[in-house]
Amino acid sequence: MTRVTRLGLTGGIGSGKSTVARMLADLGAAVVDADAIARSVTAAGGAAIGPIAAEFGAGFITPEGALDRDKMRELAFADATARTRLEAIVHPLVGRATTEQAQAAIQAGHHCIVFDVPLLVESGRWRQQVDQVLVVDCSAETQTARVMARSGLTREAVRGIMATQASRLQRLAAADVVVCNDQLSLDDLKAQVTHLARRFGL
């Protein structure tokens, strides 16, 4: 049986993680996007909606039937247990869906499964589920400039988001492989990713 590499991909906001994921997909990897799955289970009709309404009340569901993210964010600031209670609902659903997507990719003949997990380092549970961790790294200043340019957020808002994520040092400490994406052209980044991809069976 051909060996399958399970690669955990992470990086701070604005690092270029999603770009690297697309490049790996172009090289033949199957990408399982944990963030997209989490959004789908909390969207209208998602598997988490009923349990969220039961746990937090119908007021946390929008008229369209999705999780009211703004209201949940406000609650999380006021109630330290809210995030943990929400994660207890969402994480098992995301875990099941990622497993199903990975199995489907293996059956389809993929030799590398990339688990795109923004909070891989923070979660603590992902490290045991992957063979290697690939971190896309850049300076905090580069992160800030990229996110401000693409989203229109203020510097303070971007730094606030970054403060909720693992630090750069924590991510680098968890990394088996690092892609340095500071002041690189897309072609240079692609060359770096293509070179590394051989290590992952691509």
In percent terms, what proportion of residues is strand? 5-15%
Q: What string gives the helices and strands in order?
A: EHEHHHHEHEHHHEH
Oligomer: single chain
Rg, Å, rounded: 18 Å
Structural class computed from helices and strand pairing: alpha/beta
Low-confidence stretches: none
Question: Helix segment count?
Answer: 10
Summarize the amount of helix as a percent range.
40-55%
Count of beta strands:
5
- What is the overall pLDDT average? 90
Q: CA-to-CA gap between the ends?
A: 16 Å
What is the general shape?
globular
Q: Biggest sheet: strands, sense, closure?
A: 5 strands, parallel
How is this fold's topology laid out?
Blueprint lengths: L4 E6 L6 H10 L3 E4 H8 L7 H8 L12 H10 L3 H26 L4 E5 L3 H4 L8 E6 L2 H12 L3 H9 L4 H7 L2 E4 L5 H12 L5
Parallel strand pairs: 1-3, 1-4, 2-3, 4-5
Helix pairs in contact: 2-5
